[in-house]
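re: that complex we talked abt at group meeting.

here r the seqs, copy pasted straight from the sheet so there may be weird spacing, ignore it
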Amino acid sequence: MKINPAFVEKVLTRFIRDELTKFGFTKGVLGLSGGLDSSVCAVLAAHALGAKNVLALIMPYRKGFPADVKDAAGLARALAIRTKRIDITPQVDAYFLRYPTKSRLLKGNKMARERMAILYDFSAREKALILGTSNKTELLIGYGTIHGDMACAINPMGDLYKTQVRELGAYLGVPGKILKKTPTAGLWPGQTDEGEIGVAYAEIDAILFDLVDQRKSRDEVIADGFKEEVVDKVISLIKGSEFKRKLPPIAKISSRTVGHDFLYPYDWDR
Amino acid sequence: MAPRLGDIKANLNRHLEFLDRARKDKADLVVFPELSLTGYSLKDLVPDTSLDTARGPVFRELLAAGRGMSVVVGFVEERDNERGLFYNSAAFLAGGKVLHIHRKVFLPTFGMFEEGKFFAQGRNFVPFQAPFGKTGLMICRDFLQYGSSYLLFAGGAEVLIVISAAPGRGVAGPDGFETNHMWELMGEAMSYFSTAFVLYCNRTGSEDGVSFAGGSFIYSPKGERLARASGLDEEVLSCEFDMGLVRQVRKTWTFKRDERPEIILHSLERIVRRYED
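got the structure back, here u go
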């Protein structure tokens, strides 16, 4: 679980630079919420591409999370990266006016996808690739909106657990108030990841590390001292979210089918 | 070096640049990494990037550029008399000829690796007489299966050359990827117990999110590390060594003299005959 943050920074900044260069891009764009993950990603992007080649979109809904918006702007200023503030309230409210719901989850997902659509639009406008900010914990337990915050062109953070992201963030000089923030998907005010999932990140990460990195069985993880119901919960979250980590299955009819046996590298001819 | 995936022309040009530079540096031997002419994560590009050393301009140009030197390159091999079989191969060029070809025997096919899906398997570890001494070639995973080095040692190799496209994994260590340590451990052990030089050339760069770990090294027949390249940066690692050291070390450490391949063979035959399904 331990990381050497200086070396991780080197690998990840190189990854960002290499991938963009291969596809003919020099600029990156990301959604900056003021939370830990996107802040760390912004620092990595600035180090990899140079501050002037990074555009951070700050996309608040109504007056929610004013402290986060302020922190996002402050970090962007400190990094000297470009920012654009886009209020997503009009388009989100217009939709729910026609199709009202009381579900905070539906509203939150819609907002995440609205932000995604804006990121892709700016990706094209600015000729910039979208840097994803989903971490390994979120990817494994499926704590993200499919085609929302999980959508991106490249993801430098996806093999780092939340606790490792925090360690990297501390090394990169991310301000203490961002490092200490209670993680939230920002789906609604007062919402916290740990409150919603029902398990603390430190514990989820330790269980995931056992299950995924160490390839331990359920019983072995429980024997390590984790509560049975928590381990089962984590396992069921992993299983239940596999669809978010895959392209949709394609019905196979021919002898060579996209997604089955038409197998080319992502970096084909790059 | 960091080859460009699937682009033989671009990679050939880089080889020619490096060979030009090596000639100016008066190198005797130049080693390129695994699949240096094609890049690693080829998948279905394998048939489109195959080469026959006997035909076409690529090897003709490499042989011309490598005149007066020994050169090891990695490529996808498909021969006229074995069409449709694609090997992950290493060619040893010297004296204007392809002196030896090694086809990768151990094709990693697990987890992130899928070579067995796309390549045919080599069947041999055969040392050959290089201009500087008897030499054996291995490709990446071959070297981690310790029987490979043994066969080359038993066959009389004084130099073991390993070309590699090893991805880096594990970032807890103080210095680069943790997997680099694994390769060096093998380099140290195999050079020491084979009383032979070990040259390990690993690529850099990234493909599909995977970072190749570099960290090429050279060990002496005494198990001493003579040189090591950095982890992530492309680098030409050069090192001068005296082949006379093999003889000198073998006077002290008699592993080679005391080796009994016939006993090993006899024991292996017994093991293989007793296979049960």
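couple things i noticed - Chain B has a mean pLDDT of 96. The longest strand of chain B covers residues 70-77.
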